[in-house]
Design brief:
Strand content of chain B: 15-25%
Radius of gyration of chain A: 19 Å
Largest sheet of chain A: 7 strands, mixed
Structural class of chain B: alpha/beta
Helix content of chain B: 25-40%
Shape of chain A: globular
Number of helices of chain B: 10
Distance between the termini of chain B: 45 Å
Oligomer: heterodimer
Number of strands of chain A: 12
Strand order of the largest sheet of chain B: 6-7-8-3-9-10
Chain lengths: 284, 262
């Protein structure tokens, strides 16, 4: 455990603020997929760097929690390293890169490949919580549309995709319907991860700091990706395995390796990839 | 009084008044619109035509008065007692609204096909091929080149935008169409062709239309009956030919006499 810095309340936010955020979280859990407004605070990082996720994590974090932070699936990229460091210093909690060991996982853009368990919480950093935003700029109107379950507009967007690209070209922030009620933006996670959201054992919390919204998907809740009857929802597939661990069922990142344009496709979930490589080494 | 089936109007308004604070919108207007009828509301700018249309279409609440719509299944609906959800459903299934400026009635940032298909998707259509098929059918009927189905209305001329807006409204086979100066801002030849299309659509589909226009020529071509409005009130109403041939009220006489004689 790292020594906690003095002069800050546990996990940076003051207790009243955490209480306010917890209330929003409780309401969000009670109404799956509904965006609950909350009084987002200024955090010591810019909007867009995960201030929503950080506030949610700060509000639910306890001294015994084990925290894992990933950015595009990796534990060692800037956003992940700095948020992990932030909670090490302000809360002194234990951190890990192992998905199985974590009790709270804060993520930007990925759901770990290892299935999550009932005693884990997944916290998403969300830039734009409103799935209807790009078609309907008025907040007053989108609220009415949600209230009336009036979601035809969402299919207009998918129609446009097919008309333009011949298939549904939305590959991230792919809209889902939660608990057969609210259409929800799964944050910019790749649609590859959408099926994992359905009936996930872990609680999923979403925090949008700039937009001041919190929403949630409780454990074992139905999450359906929207589609057309003749253009059903599909996930991305790659024509090659991970260059490092050989996995054929994971989300791959394309990495440019030199100035000649050589490319490598590797697992975006760095922990999962490492574990598979370790296991292979043990065998050989 | 007999209450046979064909004696039921489509839309019935009683003593509708709407003001904007000290400004009058429209005053104590009663009217009935019958199935298959085109009723024109004419009058100069500021006479309350558009206000009346928007109040009757459920877009603005009146200060007083009542309006009823008789649904296809015979149910009588009080337009101002409907819940927001019921009103929206009515507005996009059995009704249509054509705005003077197409940009108001269209989604300018999505393709023509999606514009026409939107109502179908809002009503639950989930088959891309069928939605697209219906959209191209309607583009064709409105004489828009089907090859332009994936272009955004921003790339369309004013006349085409207006046609697209009409197609978007007709795709659910509505029974009642509200139109606010549908040919305003179009040049004369485009206007003439659009009127021609509208006339045959109204006849073929048995549409009822409430048409607001300041142009008596448009009213003459499309309307069966006319209401003349001045300062928020109806000053004269009757069959189109009757009013154009033999206007009774001084203001109607002025309007009719101000048509340019060919």
């Amino acid at each position: 455990m790292t020594a906690r810095e003095s002069g800050y309340n546990f996990a940076y936010l003051d207790e009243q603020t955490k209480r306010m955020i917890r209330r929003a979280i409780l309401k969000a859990v009670a109404i799956p997929g509904y965006q609950v407004p909350f009084a987002s605070r200024e955090m010591p990082m810019p909007f867009g760097w995960g201030t929503g996720g950080v506030q949610v994590t700060a509000a639910i974090l306890g001294p015994d929690d084990v925290l894992k932070v990933i950015d595009q699936g990796a534990d060692d990229t800037t956003n992940a390293v700095s948020i992990r460091g932030f909670f090490q210093r302000t809360a002194g909690v234990e951190t890990t890169e192992q998905t199985e060991e974590a009790s709270i996982i804060q993520t930007r853009h990925r759901i770990p490949e290892t299935p999550l368990k009932a005693d884990q919480i997944l916290v998403y950093q969300v830039p734009i919580p409103e799935p209807l935003r790009f078609l309907e700029p008025r907040e007053t109107e989108t609220r009415i549309l949600h209230a009336l379950k009036d979601y035809g507009l969402m299919h207009v967007k998918l129609y446009e995709d097919i008309a333009k690209h011949g298939h549904i070209a939305t590959t991230y922030a792919y809209p889902v319907k939660v608990n057969a009620r609210y259409v929800t933006d799964p944050s910019p996670t790749p649609k590859f991860d959408n099926p994992k959201m359905n009936r996930m054992a872990a609680l999923q919390l979403f925090g949008a700091g700039r937009e001041q919204r919190i929403y949630a998907i409780p454990p074992d809740t139905e999450v359906v990706s929207l589609d057309f009857e003749d253009h059903p929802f599909t996930v991305q597939a790659w024509d090659r395995p991970c260059a490092l661990c050989g996995a054929i069922d994971t989300f791959l990142d394309e990495v440019v390796t030199d100035n000649e344009g050589s490319r490598l496709f590797v697992c975006s979930d760095s922990d999962h990839c490492q574990k598979r490589r370790d296991a292979m080494q043990e065998v050989s | 009084m007999t209450d046979t089936l064909d004696a039921i109007p489509l839309l019935e308004a009683e003593e509708i008044s709407k003001d904007y604070g000290a400004h009058t919108g429209c005053r104590e207007i009663s009217l009935s619109l019958w199935p298959g009828e085109v009723l024109a509301i004419v009058g100069e700018s500021g006479s309350g035509k558009t206000t009346l249309l928007r109040v009757l279409a459920g877009q603005l609440p009146p200060n007083s008065g009542q309006a009823f719509y008789y649904r296809a299944d015979g149910r009588k609906l009080d337009i101002y007692e409907l819940s927001e959800a019921e009103r929206r459903h009515l507005q996009r299934s059995e009704w249509g609204f054509v705005y003077q400026t197409p940009a108001e009635g269209l989604r300018m940032n999505v393709s023509a096909g999606a514009n026409v298909g939107e109502r179908l998707m809002a009503l639950g259509a989930r088959h891309y091929g069928q939605i697209r098929g219906q959209a191209s059918g309607w583009l064709e009927r409105l004489e828009i080149d089907v090859a332009r189905i994936d272009e955004r209305p921003a790339a369309f001329s004013g006349g085409m935008r207006q046609r697209l807006q009409i197609a978007r409204n007709l795709v659910t086979n509505p029974r009642l169409l509200f139109m606010d100066e549908p040919t305003g801002g179009l040049d004369v030849s485009v206007q003439a062709r659009l009127l021609d299309t509208l006339r045959s659509l109204v006849r073929d589909m048995g549409l009822s239309v409430l048409l607001v226009t300041h142009d008596l020529g448009v009213a003459r071509l499309l309307a069966d009956r006319m209401l003349v409005m001045k300062e928020g009130r109806v000053v004269e109403q009757g069959l189109t030919d009757q009013i154009l041939e033999d206007p009774q009220h001084a203001y109607s006489q002025l309007l009719v006499s101000s048509i340019l004689q060919a």
